[in-house]
Amino acid sequence: MQLGFIGLGRMGSRMAGRLLGAGHDLVVHDVEIDAVGSLVVDRGATAASSAREVADLAETVLTSLPTPASVLDVLLAPDGVAQGTAVRRVVDLSTTGTRTARRLAEELGLRGVASIDAPVSGGTSGAEKGTLAVMAAASAVEFDAVSPVLATLGRVFHVGTEPGLGQAMKLVNNYLSAAALATTSEAMVVGVRAGLDPRTMLDVLNAGSGRNSATQDKFPRSVLPGTFDFGFATALMEKDLGLFADEAAALAVPTWVGAVVHQMWRQTRDRLGPDSDFTSIVRLVEGWAGIEVRADVQGGPS
Ligand code: NAD
């Protein structure tokens, strides 16, 4: 299938690589020229100079872009994907929230282009290995059309037919992931301050009821070795928590814990910078306590 892919960052470059590996013809675009280079030179993708050019060549266009504003711009701007002559459907893999997904479905629909929100979870390692959780909202016909493509990226869940339900699922997932990382940061700092060894703490937590995605993966891989290189920017996690808060407010569901978790991520972004790795949140708590949660990890970072 001739596919288009726009946004070749941490996630997009790896997902595009999987699609090329599965034998798809891929026309790619990113505003950063360096992001395009290796996929074209080493992997055989075709470079397009604009989003519109991608949509002139590909029937199915996938996007992996940082923010709702960047997705709306790439898809709906006067020189955007919606103006393309070949495009029949757009699959947005980014995290953009339900309002953006519904707006895309409406405005692309007016041009006869189907819109599928299919955000992903599983990080850069999941994108590399093709083990992401893909949360797609699409009509049955569109889901059948895109699910073989999405299956190259990981396990595909058809979460509903209403536009935005994929986004709702993703916001719920990322809220839990963010809360687990924030609370694990506090728990680990308290334990180390009390005299516990952080490796022992993780072993115990992972054998007990405190186990979560931060104790199992993020702390051993990026915090204990001090590499802070898990592959997700603090600004993007803060964006996701803002979208979750908007969603909860729109549905009149109180989320007290969510408000505190969101503030911790805002602090992390403002103190350590928007481009810091999201695992850096522990450094905020470490600073307040005057200690660091570091240790040699057997065999180095996995
Ligand atoms: P990233 O910042 O690494 O990559 C985004 C890419 O989009 C960059 O290469 C950038 O140059 C490009 N871009 C920005 N504006 C553009 C435009 N107007 N036209 C063309 N290209 C443009 O971000 P990422 O970490 O890959 O995340 C992408 C999306 O996936 C985000 O919505 C994020 O929330 C979501 N996500 C990220 C992860 C992760 O672990 N990194 C996991 C799941 C979901």
List keywords for this structure.
alpha/beta; 3-stranded mixed β-sheet; 6-stranded parallel β-sheet; binds nicotinamide-adenine-dinucleotide; N-(1-d-carboxylethyl)-l-norvaline Dehydrogenase, domain 2; single chain; 2 domains; 9 strands; Rossmann fold; 302 residues; globular
Description:
This protein has 302 residues and is of the alpha/beta class. The chain folds into two domains: 2-163, Rossmann fold (3-Layer(aba) Sandwich); 168-289, N-(1-d-carboxylethyl)-l-norvaline Dehydrogenase, domain 2. It contains 13 helices and nine strands. It has helices at residues 12-21, 33-41, 51-57, 68-76, 98-110, 123-129, 140-150, 165-193, 198-207, 213-223, 234-250, 256-272, 281-289; strands at residues 2-6, 25-29, 46-47, 60-63, 89-92, 114-117, 120-121, 132-137, 154-160. A six-stranded parallel sheet has the order 3-2-1-4-5-6, sandwiched between helices. A three-stranded mixed sheet has the order 7-8-9. Strand 1 (2-6), helix 1 and strand 2 (25-29) form a beta-alpha-beta unit. The protein starts with a strand and ends in a 13-residue tail after the last helix. The model has no long low-confidence stretch (mean pLDDT 97). The structure holds nicotinamide-adenine-dinucleotide. The site of nicotinamide-adenine-dinucleotide has 27 residues, from helix 4, strand 7 and helix 6.
